[in-house]
């Protein structure tokens, strides 16, 4: 039987993004003119442009939030602050920097222009205008717009993320044939840095019954990060257990080095991100896929993670998968670190970025990279 081709990274990310329904957000309409009155866009003096550079007697001062009660007649003006309503009779605002004080009067240093430094009523929207169609992602600016037009603001809650490592070799006081759980704390720190409400759970043994019992009692978790048990070995039980439980396997194994065994599934409305056990693989997969899962559960789209940089030394890649190689970074300049593979937690801890190295390797020059978190 032929082995199915590995899924390219971009396809895997797209599949995960598409697993979430379109945001159930309502259309947003202006409930009144925006702005509701003419507003000053500068600190200065509200006056009549037709008076030219003649001195103006100051009637008073108006601040943002004050009602427009003073009326500007010829030869008068009102001191005004940014965001304040322009008083009746005024049709221009002259900035403080362009005013001279002569006794009790203010004098423009140049002829004012009608309409200058005024945000006109309904300049942004008229009452009833459609501002955003239904189904727009729940970005932060959209929430601000909801508040501006008086619509209910949805409650904001952090996604609950569980982190669990698997493996009989894990022990807090390891014998020579055992290791400490480093992936669990690392993934917990990463999820916390990405804004999740994180819960680190006790490590699981390499037993199918234990894995299934754990998956049947995930409580209020929205995302589960597992580390280990996702490859094709005799003790890699997670793929089989998830399939037996009726989980929807979105993909398993991607064309990336390190990080090939990556598994992603939906189980009872939760996202399961099955990460490899080697720490560099586990970290890179979490760095790529956890932001997408967090964003999807919050009805938004994760920001583009890639940045453009310059590799300052060649990196070989003789394999048949693209490589993410650890680097130090100075601005856009990427200095490759010597790497001993996907178990090299020392280099992972030293890395400030991961450079994209295509199959066949890359000479010094432009490439894209991921910042570490």
UniProtKB/TrEMBL annotation:
GO terms for molecular function: metal ion binding; molybdopterin molybdotransferase activity. Keywords: Magnesium, Metal-binding, Molybdenum, Molybdenum cofactor biosynthesis, Transferase. SUPFAM superfamilies: MoeA N-terminal region -like, Molybdenum cofactor biosynthesis proteins. GO terms for biological process: Mo-molybdopterin cofactor biosynthetic process. Its EC number is 2.10.1.1. Pfam families: MoCF_biosynth (PF00994), MoeA_N (PF03453). Residues 162-296 form the MoaB/Mog domain. It comes from the Bacteria. One of its GO terms (cellular component) is cytosol. It catalyses: adenylyl-molybdopterin + molybdate = Mo-molybdopterin + AMP + H(+). InterPro entries: MoaB/Mog-like_dom_sf, MoaB/Mog_dom, MoeA-like, MoeA_C_domain_IV_sf, MoeA_linker/N, MoeA_linker/N_sf. CDD domains: MoeA. SMART domains: MoCF_biosynth (SM00852). Its cofactor is Mg(2+). Pathway: Cofactor biosynthesis; molybdopterin biosynthesis. Belongs to the MoeA family. Catalyzes the insertion of molybdate into adenylated molybdopterin with the concomitant release of AMP. This is Molybdopterin molybdenumtransferase. It comes from Mesoterricola sediminis. The lineage of its organism: Bacteria, Pseudomonadati, Acidobacteriota, Holophagae, Holophagales.
